[in-house]
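Hi there,

I know you've been waiting on this one. I reran it after we fixed the sequence typo, so this is the corrected version. Both the input and the resulting structure follow.
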Amino acid sequence: MDAFPRLREHQQNLNACVQMDEIGNELLKFLAQYPCALFYCGNVEKQMNVFYQRNLRKTQKTTLSPELNTADGTSMPNVFLCVLTGEYGHLSSIDTACLQKVKKELSDHWIDKALFVVTATSFSGSLRNFNTLSYEIGKELGIDMKTLTFRIFKDKDEDIFERMSLYFEQELVEKRYDLSRHLQSLGSDITLALQHTLSPSFTERLKRILLAGPLGVSLLDKLKDASRSYEWEKESFTRNKATVTEAADKIARFACETLGREIVETLIRHFTREMLSSNQDFSIAIFRYINLKDIGSTVLKDLLIALFSLFFGPVGWLISAIIIFFSGTEINSISFRDEVACKMITQIHQNKDKIIQEVVKKFRSDVIPRFKAIQIALENSDIELRRIFGEKEHLIRKESIEHEFQTIAGKNELIRNFKFEDDTLKIYASGDEKNYADVKEFVDTYFRPDVRTQVIMD
């Protein structure tokens, strides 16, 4: 059973807003955690047991932490609850020590949102009790009692769980601004990465990587190793020209495939190392959101087509360059295999720039559409996020203000009804102008000053 089903619904809506798994998994992980109720208690064992025994069903899936020695807790929705004795609306020495701990350890942000639970049976919940306790709590924490009265609950009052849910929801909706900033920042990085991928410096970068690696000084040795490792399954010695031609073709194709795989693997290893390094620039960090292995498979396929075209084009230069002796050819001999490799490297040296350009071209043709797809997903996600949570934010604020005022409304017999609309809390009360002054004074004394209020007498 989920203690706060509406919060879970909002979290699911956040997930639905982000339209791409690659970015959603990273950006939403801090928004999908269970809420955390963090308690400050003077007599921890006694008061916590009383509170939880009475409300066990309601608090499932809520983390309990008797103490939190930090002023921040931004990784998940938090609510701080201070459990007090509050005998007859007054603080005990243990309560005072608890509040002093709260003031020392929590920032003003969390103190302004903390809820106070009173366990004493002598706390009747009368206006007098609330007034006295609000004043004393405010004095200890150094805050206005106007911001306190509507945050005090008796421990039997199940309304506290609705308030907690509303506060959790408020925090979650506020965090959507962080998510929106993440999406926009990532969108800017994608744009820069796209520009960089299209730039001459990107071509030069890949060229340096390839010339220092698979197309470098050890290229001939690699081609020889690949040629020698090919397993020829037919007769080894032959005078048949067609057999020699077939063998040379298959050995060269195998060497091409080996070279192509090394070219792609070199690039993938380079980008992977850069991603794992602590000093990332935008063009590398962005590859976190692209499947490099998938890119490698696509680039390799296209690169092999280009290499085969180079070596086995209409002129058939490679095959015609292989000398076929009248006395016969030993296909499995090192000399024959090395001859194929040497003919290949001659052509590679003559066409090295063309090969590198082909690698860059294939890499760009695969990566750029992915970048653009991420751009579109980011833009659509941000639009959807603003649309859905713009509406949610207004609704949650309305419900929170109404729930807060409901806590004190019943303590004034003149107040009949209230609702938050047009960015104003409208309070409907019975009586004449004299009663109006009394109700207005009550509202100004016991309710938060940052909410515009309007008392309407009828």
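Quick highlight: The radius of gyration is 36 Å.

Best,
R. S.
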